[in-house]
């Protein structure tokens, strides 16, 4: 009787050890599976982030563009930065609050001191006040943006027109600018991580009808 009792106790201990071993194996398997899943998710997120580029959509809201071709992504990023800057800086409405929000609150974060000097010069000449008082609006029409990627910083040329609505009449003014694009730190006010430097207006003459 004592032998049977001891044998039963020994079997119970053995079964308990087997259950414990199975739990340990299952736990380790689960932990390994979780680790592999987490590693895969992190990898996918990093790869997605590498192919994600931020652009301003019409100067108002943020859009994310996914491009696998790095060169194409740089093209989109640089052209978008130049295009949006010009739209904010040269597209004007007869509203000083609107002008300041677009230029001081957005465009000037995209350019260096060369753009700030131009803006201050126009302010000193009462250019924006004249627009507000005269009640006419200026819409920017882009023809082309040419960027030279053969050397850094990237030189660009913007070619377009300003469509001026004044007293029921429409006039056009030529707009050709140039400058360079440099990489900079991304900030909440400049998510593209680019800055226009040595900005200059080459032509802004009225076009003959």
From TrEMBL:
It comes from Flagellimonas aurea. Keywords: Membrane, Transmembrane, Transmembrane helix. The chain crosses the membrane at residues 23-43. This is Conjugative transposon protein TraK.
